[in-house]
Amino acid sequence: MKNPCIVGWAHTRFGRLDGETLESLITQVTSGALADAGIGGREVDAVFVGNLGGFENQTFPASLPLQADAGLRFKPATRYENACASGSAALYAALDRIAAGRARIALVIGVEKMNALDNAGVAATLAAASYMKEEGATGLTFPGIFAQMAQTCFDRYGDQSDALATIAAKNHANGAKNPLAHIRRDLGFDYCRHVSEKNKLVAPPLKVSDCSTVADGAAALIVAAPEVALSFPKAVGFRATQQVNDFLPMSRRDVIDFAGPKEAFARAYAEAGIGVDDLSFAEVHDCFTIAELLSYEAMGLAAPGQGGRVALDGVTRLDGRLPVNPSGGLKAKGHPVGATGVSMHVMAAMQLTGRAGELQLPDTKLGAVFNMGGSAVASYVSILEAVRA
Predict the structure, then answer these.
(1) Percent of the chain having pLDDT more than 70?
(2) Is the pTM of this model over 0.85?
């Protein structure tokens, strides 16, 4: 074993957490992750915080974990931002520091308190993660950006409404079993397929049921160097970690080609020495249902234009050939943007160590995590396996 391992984790419930602040969320998962790993703050060499920011009036949260454990005092702590992939950016920075020999144990936190703003404020803050000279200048928010992707897909390959509703219904069925999820209701295909008083069009052709939720929450990981990890009761290793960034302006890309995610998956498979058929499950970035559909094509489950068929044929259901988003995904679990990448790795680690409760899949060997920032601009793909369960 040559790569760092996840040896502990913590995760708050996601949702509208009115009694919580950015600080309280950070301290909860800091204490929880340290306790889960059986260590104290003094044993941590560095702290990494993923946080988009702009929602709460606290743009410098890197030292807030010290509020949970004074043993973290004087340890280097840094905030990382890479849009909705900020959590994975923090994690990869920690892995790089360990690989460079500058740390043996690191604390990684992803956190966001989105509901500190009203809906208009949230939309404006998220829109700044687009190319403001083009998309932002036209007033596009992210529902509008992904609606453009969906409409382009419809125009090129035919109406995908049934497939998008199938993806939404699948993830809500999974999320209903996840005690940490924002929405714990199995909404069913019919609800997700049709416009209604509760399921209104947000940005045609996308409805409310096609969009991830505005949520608060935090997640944390303890990662350790390989020579240290084997002293912990559980360890989940990284077979591959690949980051790819594409052009920020959508005008410079075929947006539904998902070229960045496709490249990240290809590099991750090559690093791990595997193919898509070797995976036991995947947690992918379904900020909108169209993003999950295009992810099927990027990860090699389908040829371009055929991602909808993967959904309709049940390939990605819990009982399918490759379960995708067994946690409920961003769609049902929630998407507190800075927390998402860390959360996805926690969910994967739970699956691989047999700790996923009602969501547990049988005989999991390899899991993939795909976390995305912006309109498929920043793409992070991890391949994980249990080293010690």
Answers:
(1) 100
(2) yes
